[in-house]
C-alpha cells in the first residue's frame, strides 16, 4: 500500500509533485492507474492561470480535485473535468494549490507547452457541450470493431 503524503505541504516547500489522479472526471487526459500529473505550486507558477490550464484545487467542502480551467479572471475561476460537461464555479483563485506543467503516460513525459497538447486541449474545451456524446459514440465504435 502506498503511503499518503500531504500534497499541499510538499508544494508549499517548493517541490513539484507527481500525482496519480483517481476517477474518470479527467478522462481521456488521464487514465486511472496509468497516468500521472506533474504539479508545481500555484505560488511558484510563472504566469497567470488561464483557460485550459489543469490545476489541483481545494473545493469549499474540503475535497482535493484536479480539473481544467474553463474560465478565469483576476479574482475567480471556473473548472470542468475533461469527462464532464458541468462547470464548477465561481471559485476564488485562492483555492488553487498547484498547476500541471506536464503529464506522464507509459513512462513518457509530455509538457503542457507542447503545441499538440495545446491544440487538443483547446478543441476539447470548445466541444464541451457534446463531448460526452462523442466519447459514447467512440466506445460504441470500439466495441463494434473489437
Query: What is the tally of beta strands?
Result: 8
Rounded to the nearest angstrom, the distance between the terminal CA atoms is 35 Å
| Major β-sheet profile | 8 strands, antiparallel
- Which CATH architecture is right? Ribbon
Count of helical segments? 3
Low-confidence stretches: none
CATH fold node name: Umud Fragment, subunit A
Average pLDDT, rounded to a whole number, is: 90
Q: Please estimate the helix content.
A: 10-25%
Strand percentage lies at 25-35%
What's the structural domain tally?
Answer: 1
Can you describe this structure?
There is one protein chain. With 146 residues, the chain is an alpha+beta fold. It has a single domain (7-145), classed as Umud Fragment, subunit A. It is 23% helix and 33% strand. It is built from three helices and eight strands; from the N terminus they run αββββββββαα. The protein has helices spanning 7-12, 115-126, 131-145; strands at residues 17-19, 35-41, 54-58, 64-72, 76-80, 88-92, 96-105, 108-111. Strands 1, 2, 3, 4, 5, 6, 7 and 8 form an eight-stranded antiparallel β-sheet that branches. It is globular and about 50 Å long. The model has no long low-confidence stretch (mean pLDDT 90).
